[in-house]
Amino acid sequence: MGVDEQTVDPAAERAAEAAESTESAANATTTAAAAPASLHKYPIAPGYRVNVRTGPGTSYRIVRTLPIGMKVPIYCQKPGERVTGPYGTSNIWCNIANGQFVSDTYVYTGSDGYVAPRCD
């Protein structure tokens, strides 16, 4: 046996692997529990850079602009200014982050109505 070689008891090796596997599963469960229940993201209309506003209307301040091809989560939705976009005309606005809204007419949700709970 060379200096760098080790002898490992096969039973001890299996026990160590089992403990490692259990620890990995526990960490995955903890991470999943900490994540939001729904991580589904909806695509912004193709070819559009969409303004994100502080409230549900075009008179609210723009906080950022979403790049082309972006997908966004929808945490809640609320009625606001009626807007026409690539997906029709609607007064529904999507909350995509704390204090950040985009018109539902620029988000492909597959529905003309609410797809998330109403914002408080």
What does the model show?
The protein is 21% helix and 32% strand. Residues 1-35 have low confidence and may be disordered. The chain has one helix at residues 10-34; strands spanning 41-43, 50-53, 62-66, 71-73, 76-85, 88-97, 100-103. With 120 residues, the protein is an alpha+beta fold. It has a 3-stranded antiparallel β-sheet with strand order 5-6-7, with no helix packed on it. Strands 1-4 form a two-stranded antiparallel ribbon. It has a two-stranded antiparallel ribbon with strand order 2-3. The radius of gyration is 24 Å and the shape is globular. A hairpin with an 8-residue loop joins strand 2 and strand 3. It has 1 helix and 7 strands. The longest helix has 25 residues, at 10-34.
- Strand content is 25-35%
Report, as a whole number of angstroms, the end-to-end distance. 70 Å
How many alpha or pi helices? Answer: 1
Low-confidence regions: 1-35
The helix fraction, in percent, is 10-25%
Count of strand segments: 7
Which structural category fits the helices and strands? alpha+beta
Major β-sheet, in short? 3 strands, antiparallel
- Net shape: globular
Sequence of secondary-structure elements: HEEEEEEE
As a whole number of angstroms, the C-alpha radius of gyration is: 24 Å
In spatial order, strands of the major sheet run 5-6-7
Provide mean pLDDT, rounded: 79
